[in-house]
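Good morning N.,

You mentioned wanting to compare the apo and holo forms, so I went ahead and generated the holo version with guanosine-5'-monophosphate. This is what I fed in:
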Amino acid sequence: MEKLQAFKQLISTPKRVVIVTHFKPDADALGSSLGLSAFLSKKGHSISVITPSNYPDFLAWMPGNETVLALSNEKPEVEQKALELIAAADMVFCLDFSNLSRINSLGDAIRKSNAIKVLIDHHLEPENFADYVQWSTASASTAGLIFELIEELGEKDLIDKTVATCLYAGLMTDTGSFKHNNTRHREFEIASELVYRGANPHEVAREIYDTNTLERLRLTGYVLSQKLVVLPDYNTAYMMLSQEELKSFGAQTGDTEGLVNYGLSIKDVKLSVLMYDRKEEIKLSFRSLGDFSVNAMARKYFEGGGHRNASGGSSKLSLEDTLKKFLSILPEYKTQLNKD
Ligand code: 5GP
Ligand code: MN
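and this is what came out, ligand included:
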């Protein structure tokens, strides 16, 4: 981090800290937030972790989960409380996202607040709003960046089992269990340190990957047998799920997570897309292999972004029209998708 000494000075006395992450947080978003929270509370700060929405049950086991303030449409009082906390904060940490517009009303509140803002993230093209920044697109996870910040501060000894477990969860999932092409030697070094300090790889993996509901597995089976479409001319796979389909499988938040990866597991497929109806909008998940940038595609056409090989976006069109739009832009990418 630039200005590390000033940052160190800042966190050497107790502060009112708010940690915010992105909408529909994943394990890296929540794990880095709870890991940082546990670290900072050991240093005597008072911390509030706020998520702009709910998140899947397979993340709710994380130590500190019970302290999270999760916004929801059904509980407007939570948003009020979150806005008050942001207004009163000395420091606001924004984790695993880099664009305040991604967190709606909380983003406006953060922009307006006098708190010192800290951005810790690994997504492409960050917005320039923070006073302190720990940002690297080379890092596979925000959790890894939190580890590196703690290391730079010379405070690795404060990484106990709680901190290590939360950070390990983020590192494990954002690397796809250490197999995505963002997995460097460094990720293994950090994983090794976290395991040394108490993270249990087997337990974390079981909590996240092996706590499926039967409905979720049935939904996966349905998608693979009925909904997965391959377009050989474009080396592309896509899947589409309507509200009715999701409802008929009793789908919960997080049940669609990971589906998009099945498309990429097909030989020769370079681009995989999942589109599903989230009621308020159509959500798109993009995954790609090699040089093909889904970040560019999501930014240009679906108000989204993320990483080169993993991005998300949204559409206000109907599900069918979203598919039409997607199919209509594919020819623009045909040459790229057919490159070796
Ligand atoms: P997922 O497809 O798993 O939801 O997201 C893949 C990656 O893209 C994640 O790193 C996520 O943070 C990012 N992402 C997902 N949705 C959006 C979006 O609507 N806008 C932006 N800028 N990034 C997104
Ligand atoms: Mn992440």
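The longest strand covers residues 271-277.

Happy to go through it together on a call whenever suits you.

Best,
F.
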